Amino acid sequence: MEASEITWTLLSLFFIGLAYFSAFAFVAGLLWKLAVYLRTPMPYPHSLTPGAKTEGQAILRVLGDVTIFPNLFKADKWLWAGAWVFHAALASVLFRHLRYFTYPVPGLVLYMEPVALFFGSLFGAAILFLFWRRLGLPRTLYISNIPDYFVLVLLGLVAATGLAVSYWLHVNIVDVKGFIVGLMTFHPVEIPRHPLFLLHLFFVLVLMLYFPFSKLLHVGGILFSPSRHEPFTVQGNGSRSPDFMKR
Amino acid sequence: MSKFDETPIIKDPAINGVLKPPKLREHASAEVRCYPSKPKDTAAIDLPTERVPDWQERAIAKFGELLEKNQALRVYMDICARCGACTDKCQFYLGTGDPQNFPVARAELLRKVYRRYFTPAGLFPDLGDAADLDEEMLQKWYTYFYQCSECRRCSVFCPYGIDTAEITIAAREIMASIGVSTKYVTEVVAKVYQTGNNLGIPPAAWKDNCEFLEEDVQAETGHPIRFPVDVQGADVLLVPPSADNFANTDTMIGYGKLFHYLGVNWTTSTYCNEGGNFGLFLNFANLKKVNARILQAARDLGVKTIIWGECGHAWRAGIMTPALNGPMDAFDPPYPYHISQYIVDMLHKGAFDGRIDKSANDDYLVTYHDPCNSARAGYLIEEPREIIRAVCNRFVEMPEGTIREKTFCCGAGNGLLTDEIMPIRMAGGKPRALAVKHTGANYLATVCAICKAQLPESMHYWDVPVKVGGVIDLLARALKL
Ligand code: SF4
Ligand code: SF4
After folding, report:
1. How far is residue B262's CA from residue B43's CA, in Å, rounded to a whole number?
2. Among A14, A105, B172, B326, which residue carries the largest CB count within 10 Å?
3. pLDDT class for A239, splitting at 50, 70, 90?
4. 3-class secondary structure, B367
5. Do the bridges between strand B305-308 and strand B467-470 make them parallel or antiparallel, or are there none, so unpaired?
């Protein structure tokens, strides 16, 4: 075997190993963390008022938090816009990635093709905005720490390499899909021989690995925020028209 | 000239009653600290009387225990994105410019230690922004967790509802467990166990004062208004903040007139004549123990129900009663029940129809300060306003963004109402004071004894000529007996 062949084989093994390891860490770590949140009790009522008075209203409150970030809107319109665009673009980019995982590819994913570049660029732009905001405002600069920069840089690299392999140094989609489906069916095949794609994959896997140990836990953690998911039910007992009072 | 160091306080004016986020002034309030607790007080409330020798290990053990027991702490340690949305929302930052008073920066003081001892980031402290719990960190905790009034304002603006109050509560609990607490808070809790109330009023003095009030009110109104004490078998046990019987007597008179008018058989208790629960500012065990006294007093007197008086943190603890001290099924519903809710219910029943003379309050232009505890922890926002509108002709709201769930703390809530930290109290009281000033009101109504103690001082400091009083005081003035 030629030297370069050996390198590719080793790289393949590395990526296959890292992929399984990261996927495991991501899923197990996240589930473990969420299970810990779930089983930790709250020793006293902690609903933020005014707000939900029933379970149903509390669920709506959390659904609102997850989808439209109302508190951020109250706090800071620019941040709200940046954060919302970031998350929405991320969601659509992730959704579009279904075409590398599924067969047949869902119709909706195919319909998205013409606007995919738009969402990808929006995602990148939102990251730049968030980065600028972190560095540019004295208040956010003061509170930012190395992990905050690390996550942003990592996301930026994921976005940049992702855009590059889709619209510039094209990677062969058939190879990519073959590799991913191979991993998913536990019949791993050799990695696509495309350095930029491998970088993209590498950054994604690092992000997955880091996820359960990071502030990215807000993704599932928000569901367990007692001030949001708890309804104010302490006066559920008894009506508000006492009958022992005279007059 | 003020009697205290004013350097921590930013004096810039507000624009239309609202403050702009000030420039950062690092360490501006780093030297403002509460006096440490006295051994005689901590001994009386089951806390170490001095810093325990193995304080680091004990603190981390306590931290671990709280993480197991408290979902808010557990989740809020992990999920903050340091997005910065809360940074300009805390009155103590707005008044001092000290970035350590950003809610997120305050919380990070605890999080750094969390990451060091409870997460893999502790293996790489520099990269993971983790820090040892050393003397320096403990001093920062002591300073800045007693510059937080646990008011929950930050939670309103956090995309995940992260409640820095809950983080402060945990930090104070950890500190208390190793023998680090403040004189003011421990002294008050100790007084409750000795005398039944925060002011340390003995039963005889309480009774005397009630009799004195009866004579006074009789002379003034001609009506035999009673302020009953320890009446067995009364229908209602009123649990006021004890200050109502001494400092805010107009509020006490208000309760008396209201119950007299409605013909309610009520009483106060000398075993528990205090709603205000300073255990909330210290640790869980004392929170529970102080609150249990209310149920005990109610059982001893055999009352049918309990009504909480005009007190913010009494109500915040009050709504926890079933969770802290067991079911209240032995009492008539609704429970827990707040005096403002009761008045509104009576209003709706028509109990005051035709007997209210609003013009009696025409000399007042009234504005309403939402106490942080009743608004954000106790769902009391509409009731006080409804009462004010029913008994006053002239009511004006402060600017949007400073009221209702976005209300500012008076500046001294939840353990900060002590004179040695006057710079923090006046700085923290600034957003509220300037919002009041903007309205031009001459009566500032509120339903909290802490607010009623702090606001006159902060209004004076910020040069806002306004009388501070209760909501029920206004009702009492307008009610035709
Ligand atoms: S708003 Fe919430 S998530 Fe953002 S920095 Fe403050 S506490 Fe953290
Ligand atoms: S709870 Fe209130 S005082 Fe404490 S950090 Fe939040 S806004 Fe500031």
Report:
1. 44
2. B172
3. low
4. strand
5. unpaired
- Min CA distance, B41 vs chain A (Å)? 26
CA distance B353 to chain A (A): 11
Determine the pLDDT at residue A56.
Answer: 93
Nearest residue by C-alpha to atom 5 in ligand 1: B82
Distance B159 CA to ligand 1 centre (A): 7
Interchain CB distance below 8 Å, B70 and A147: no
- The number of helix segments (H) and strand segments (E) in chain B equals 22, 7
Check pLDDT > 50 for residue B60. yes
Residue with the smallest CA separation from ligand 2 atom 2 is: B151
Ligand nearest to the CA of B89: 2
- Reduced to 3 states (helix: H, G, I; strand: E, B; else coil), residue B307 is strand
Shortest-distance ligand to the CA of residue B81? 1
As a whole number of Å, the CA-based R_g of chain B is 22
Cα A145 from Cα A126, distance rounded (Å): 20
| % of chain B residues with pLDDT over 70 | 100
Mean pLDDT, to the nearest integer, of B185-203?
A: 93
Q: Could you read off the pLDDT of B161-185 as tens digits, one per residue? A: 999 999 999 999 999 999 999 999 9
Which residue segments constitute the domains of chain A, with CATH numbers given? 46-241 (1.20.950.20)
**Residue showing tokens 């379970």:** A55
Residue A135 pLDDT > 50: yes
Q: Which of B104, B116, B160, B166 to probe the A interface (max A CBs under 10 A)?
A: B160
CB contact under 8 A, B262 and A76: no
Mean pLDDT in residue range B297-301 = 95
| Phi and psi, residue A234, nearest 5° | -60, -25
CATH code reported for the domain at B358-478: 3.40.50
What's B48-180's CATH class? mainly alpha
Ligand 1 atom with minimal separation from the B84 CA:
5
Residues of B in contact with A77 (CB under 8 A): none
B266 has which bridge partners? B236
Yes or no, beta carbons of A240 and B85 under 8 Å apart: no
Q: In what order do the strands lie in the sheet with B366-368?
A: B366-368, B443-446, B467-470
Quote the CA–CA distance of B166 and B145 in Å, as a whole number.
Answer: 11
Residue B13 near ligand 1, beta carbon < 6 Å:
no
Report the alpha-carbon distance of residue B78 to residue A215 in Å, rounded: 6
Whether B302 has its CB under 8 Å from any CB of chain A: the answer is no
- Give the span between the Cα atoms of A73 and A84, in whole angstroms: 10
> The complex's ipTM?
0.93
Per-residue pLDDT for A246 more than 50?
no
Cis previous bond, B371, omega within 30: no
pLDDT of residue A101: 86
- Find out whether B360 and B221 touch, Cβ atoms under 8 Å: no
User: In the predicted model, what is the mean pLDDT of chain B?
Assistant: 95
pLDDT for residue B3 = 84
Pairing of strands B467-470, B266-267: unpaired
Q: Where are the domains of chain B?
A: 48-180, 196-349, 358-478
DSSP line for A197-209: HHHHHHHHHHHHH
pLDDT at A236: 56
pLDDT one-digit tens code per residue, B375-433: 999 999 999 999 999 999 999 999 999 999 999 999 999 999 999 999 999 999 999 99
Q: Which residues, including other chains, have CB under 8 Å from residue A17's CB and lie 6 or more apart?
A: none
**Max CA-CA distance within chain A?**
100
Contact call for residues B341 and B333 (beta carbons, < 8 A): no
- Closest CA–CA distance from residue A98 to any residue of chain B (Å): 27
CB-CB contact of B111 with B75 (8 Å): no
Closest C-alpha among B227, B276, B231 to residue B256: B227
**CA–centroid distance for B184 within its chain:** 14
Cα(A209) to centroid(ligand 2), Å: 34
